Inverse folding.
C-alpha cells in the first residue's frame, strides 16, 4: 500500500488525505501514519505545518 | 459492567500449589493503552518495581494464579514499534527474544487501531505466542466505531479479547486466553506481515547468507528482516557474528537495496490495512465540521473554480471600487497640489530646479505613492482570504493549471499578488520550497498585469476605443494571462525537464480572520512596495525627467526624444511612433509614467484633452498594439530590482530579454492583425 501511496504522490499535484485514503481503500488515519513514516524515511517532506498558521506564516521571512 | 473481582489470586509464587515453573507472561503495548490498569488488576499488590538492568527504564513485575497455575507477569516498556532507536524498544524486544515468555499479551487501543496494530505487526514476527487484548472498547463505541473482535481474530490468526480494563470488563476472558495460549491450545498460527513482493527474493538471499551464523537466541528470519530494515543493533550483531566474507556479501546486498526499509514497512501497513478492512465495520467518522462541508464545494473540480472566479472577481471589484476614488483624491489633492507648490515656490529660484522637483521627483515618485490606496485594499482583501484559509483552497484548485506550466498550486499565491503589484509577487516567491519552481514563478510574476499597467490600459482604452474600452481591457488581461501560461509552459519545460516533486496539501481549518495578522501582512507587503519605490524609482524618475528636458528644455529636442526617434524604425513594425516609444521607455520607471510622458510629449495636460489628442493622433491599430506591448513590456525598475534580489543578475537579464522579445513580438502580431481587419 505504501508504494501505491508513493506512486500517487509521485504523480504530483495537491492531494488531500481523505482522497488518498479513499483511493487506497483504507482510513485517513492509516494514510497519515504512512505519511509520517515516509517523512521519517526522507521520501516525503512535510512542510513544517506552516499552513496551519494561515498564510501569514510564510510572508516576510527574509 | 461486572464488578466482582475475577477468580485470580494474586500473590507470591512460593505459596502456590504445585512446584511447576511459573508461566511467564509479557505485557506489551504502546504508551497509554491501559497496560498499567491491566497489570494492576492482574497482580494486585504483588508487584515489584525496579529498573531494567543497566537502564533507567522502569520495570514492573508481578504474579497471579489461575486454575492452580502460577503466572509471572512482566510489564514491558510502552513502545509503538520494535526498532533499535530507543532503549525502551530494545528492552522490550530483547526480553521477548532472550527470556522466551510463554505468552505475550499485546494490548491494543480499539479507538486508534491503526496505530496500535503496528506493534502487533512486529510482535508476531517474534517467537512467542501472542494474545491480543482489544482494550478501550468503550471509547471506540463512543467514537461511533464498530469493531468485530472475532473477525479480527480470524484475520490475525490470534486470539482477540475485547476489553474495557478501566471498568474491569474482559479481564477474566483475557486470563483465560492467556492460559489457553500457554497450553498451546490452539497452536498459534498468526498471519504475519510479508515484505513487499518485489523484495522477497532479497530477503531470501539474506537469510541464506546468514543461515547458521545467527547467534542464539535470535531468530533467523527476524534477524534477516531487521537487517533489511537497517536496524543498528542487529547490523552490529551480525557484523560481529559473521565471518568477514559473509558479512561483505550481506553488506553488498544491503547497500544495493537501500529502499528495503520501505518494502518492510510497506508490508506491515498492508497487513494493518487488511486487519482494519476486515474487522472495522464502521470506521470512526471525523467531525464533519464546517470546514469539510465548505471544502466539499471549495475544492470541487468544477465548483471550486467557479467559486474561485467569483472570489477573485469580488476582490478586484472591491479594490477598484473603493480604491480608485481614493487614488484620485490623493492624486488631485496630494501629489498635484504638492507639485504646484513646489513649482510655484522654486520657480523664482530656478525654473530648472522647479521642474526637477515638481515633475521629476514629486510627479514621478509621488504618482507611484498615489497607488497606495489600491494596493492597501488589494493586499487587505488578499490578507483576509489568506487568514481565513481560503487561499489554500485557491492554490489547491489552481494546482491543475499550474501544472501546465510545471508549477504547483503554491505558486498561485505570489502570482496572484502580482495583480496588485509585481514587487511583492516576486518577493513572495520565497515561500516556494523548490528552487526551480521559485525561479520559474519569479520569472513569470512580471507577466501578471499589475494595477499600474492596468491603470494605463484603463486610461487609454476609453480614449481610443470609447465604449469598446471594457472589451479591450479584458482582452488585454486575458491575452497577458495566455502569454503567461504559454511562457510558463515553455520555460517550465526548459528548466524542469521532467522533474516533478509532488506535494501534500495541508488544508487548514477555516477560522475567523485575525485583524492583527492581516494588518501585519498588509504592512509588510505595502512597505516592500514603498521601500522599492523610494530607493529605486526616485532616482530613475529623476534621470528620465532629466533626459526629457535636456539639452534644450523642450521635449521635442531632448535626448529622450532622440532615443525614441532612433528606435522608430523598430517601432513602426508595431505601428508605434517615437512618442509612443518614449512613453514606453519611461514606463520602465513606473508603468503609469506612460500616461504622464504621453501628456508631456503630446503637449497636453492629463485629462480628457489628452484622450482627445490621442484619439486623433493614432489609429486604433497602433493604440491596440501600444496597449498590448505596454502590458507585456519589461517590468518597472522596482520589479527588476526585486527580480535581481531573488534570482540573481543572469536570470534578471534573461527575464528582461525574454519579456522584451515577447512584448514586441505579440505587439507586432496584434498590430498587423488589427490592420488586417481594417482598424
Amino acid at each position: 500500500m505504501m508504494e501505491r501511496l508513493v506512486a500517487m504522490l509521485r504523480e504530483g499535484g495537491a492531494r488531500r488525505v481523505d482522497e488518498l485514503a479513499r483511493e487506497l481503500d483504507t482510513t485517513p488515519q492509516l494514510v497519515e501514519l504512512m505519511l509520517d513514516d515516509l517523512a521519517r524515511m526522507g521520501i516525503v517532506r512535510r512542510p513544517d505545518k506552516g499552513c496551519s498558521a494561515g498564510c501569514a506564516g510564510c510572508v516576510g521571512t527574509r | 459492567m461486572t464488578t466482582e473481582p475475577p477468580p485470580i489470586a494474586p500473590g507470591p509464587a512460593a505459596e502456590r500449589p504445585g512446584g511447576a515453573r511459573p508461566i511467564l507472561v509479557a505485557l506489551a503495548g504502546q504508551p497509554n493503552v491501559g497496560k498499567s490498569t491491566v497489570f494492576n488488576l492482574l497482580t494486585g499488590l504483588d508487584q515489584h518495581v525496579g529498573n531494567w538492568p543497566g537502564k533507567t527504564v522502569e520495570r514492573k513485575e508481578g504474579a497471579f494464579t489461575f486454575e492452580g497455575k502460577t503466572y509471572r507477569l512482566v510489564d514491558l516498556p510502552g513502545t509503538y514499534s520494535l526498532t533499535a532507536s530507543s532503549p525502551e524498544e530494545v528492552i522490550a524486544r530483547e526480553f521477548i527474544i532472550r527470556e522466551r515468555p510463554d505468552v505475550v499479551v499485546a494490548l491494543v487501543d480499539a479507538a486508534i487501531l491503526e496505530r496500535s496494530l503496528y506493534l502487533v505487526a512486529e510482535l508476531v514476527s517474534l517467537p512467542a505466542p501472542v494474545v491480543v487484548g482489544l482494550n478501550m472498547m468503550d471509547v471506540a463505541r463512543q467514537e461511533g466505531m464498530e469493531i468485530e473482535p472475532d473477525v479480527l481474530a480470524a484475520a490475525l490468526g490470534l486470539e482477540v479479547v475485547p476489553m474495557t480494563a478501566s471498568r474491569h470488563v474482559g479481564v477474566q476472558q483475557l486470563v483465560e486466553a492467556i492460559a489457553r495460549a500457554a497450553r498451546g491450545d490452539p497452536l498459534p498460527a498468526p498471519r504475519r506481515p510479508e515484505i513487499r513482493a518485489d523484495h522477497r527474493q532479497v530477503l531470501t538471499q539474506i537469510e541464506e547468507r546468514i543461515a547458521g551464523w545467527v547467534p542464539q537466541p535470535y531468530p533467523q528470519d527476524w534477524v534477516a528482516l531487521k537487517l533489511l530494515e537497517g536496524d543498528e543493533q542487529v547490523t552490529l550483531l551480525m557484523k560481529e557474528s559473521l565471518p568477514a566474507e559473509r558479512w561483505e556479501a550481506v553488506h553488498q546486498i544491503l547497500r544495493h537495496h537501500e529502499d528495503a526499509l520501505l518494502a518492510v514497512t510497506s508490508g506491515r501497513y498492508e497487513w494493518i490495512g487488511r486487519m482494519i478492512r476486515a474487522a472495522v465495520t464502521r470506521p470512526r467518522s471525523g467531525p464533519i465540521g464546517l470546514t469539510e462541508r465548505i471544502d466539499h464545494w471549495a475544492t470541487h473540480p468544477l465548483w471550486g473554480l467557479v467559486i474561485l472566479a467569483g472570489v477573485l472577481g469580488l476582490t478586484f471589484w472591491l479594490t477598484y471600487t473603493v480604491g480608485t476614488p481614493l487614488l484620485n483624491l490623493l492624486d488631485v489633492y496630494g501629489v498635484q497640489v504638492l507639485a504646484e507648490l513646489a513649482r510655484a515656490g522654486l520657480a523664482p529660484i530656478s525654473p530648472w530646479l522647479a521642474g526637477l522637483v515638481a515633475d521629476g521627483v514629486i510627479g514621478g515618485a509621488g504618482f507611484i505613492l498615489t497607488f497606495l490606496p489600491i494596493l492597501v485594499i488589494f493586499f487587505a482583501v488578499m490578507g483576509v482570504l489568506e487568514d481565513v484559509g481560503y487561499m489554500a483552497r485557491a492554490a489547491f484548485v489552481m494546482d491543475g493549471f499550474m501544472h501546465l506550466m510545471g508549477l504547483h498550486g503554491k505558486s498561485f499565491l505570489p502570482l496572484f499578488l502580482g495583480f496588485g503589484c509585481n514587487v511583492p509577487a516576486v518577493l513572495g516567491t520565497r515561500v516556494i520550497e523548490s528552487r526551480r519552481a521559485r525561479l520559474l514563478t519569479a520569472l513569470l510574476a512580471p507577466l501578471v498585469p499589475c494595477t499600474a499597467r492596468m491603470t494605463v490600459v484603463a486610461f487609454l482604452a476609453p480614449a481610443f476605443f470609447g465604449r469598446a474600452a471594457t472589451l479591450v481591457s479584458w482582452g488585454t488581461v486575458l491575452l497577458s494571462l495566455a502569454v503567461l501560461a504559454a511562457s510558463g509552459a515553455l520555460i517550465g519545460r526548459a528548466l524542469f525537464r521532467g522533474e516533478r516533486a509532488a506535494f501534500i496539501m495541508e488544508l487548514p481549518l477555516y477560522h475567523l480572520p485575525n485583524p492583527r495578522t492581516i494588518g501585519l501582512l498588509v504592512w509588510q507587503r505595502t512597505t516592500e512596495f514603498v521601500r522599492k519605490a523610494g530607493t529605486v524609482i526616485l532616482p530613475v524618475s529623476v534621470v528620465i525627467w532629466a533626459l526629457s528636458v535636456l539639452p534644450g528644455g523642450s521635449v521635442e529636442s531632448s535626448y529622450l526624444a532622440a532615443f525614441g526617434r532612433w528606435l522608430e524604425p523598430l517601432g513602426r513594425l508595431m505601428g508605434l511612433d517615437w512618442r509612443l516609444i518614449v512613453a514606453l521607455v519611461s514606463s520602465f520607471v513606473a508603468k503609469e509614467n506612460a500616461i504622464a510622458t504621453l501628456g508631456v510629449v503630446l503637449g497636453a495636460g492629463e485629462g480628457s484633452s489628452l484622450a482627445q489628442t490621442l484619439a486623433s493622433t493614432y489609429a486604433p491599430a497602433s493604440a491596440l498594439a501600444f496597449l498590448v506591448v505596454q502590458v507585456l513590456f519589461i517590468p518597472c525598475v522596482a520589479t527588476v530590482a526585486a527580480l535581481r534580489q531573488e534570482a540573481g543578475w543572469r536570470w534578471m537579464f534573461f527575464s528582461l530579454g525574454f519579456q522584451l522579445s515577447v512584448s514586441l513580438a505579440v505587439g507586432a502580431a496584434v498590430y498587423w492583425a488589427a490592420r488586417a481587419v481594417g482598424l
Notes: The mean pLDDT of chain B is 82. Chain B is about 60% helix and 10% strand. Residues 303-346 of chain B form the longest helix (44 residues).
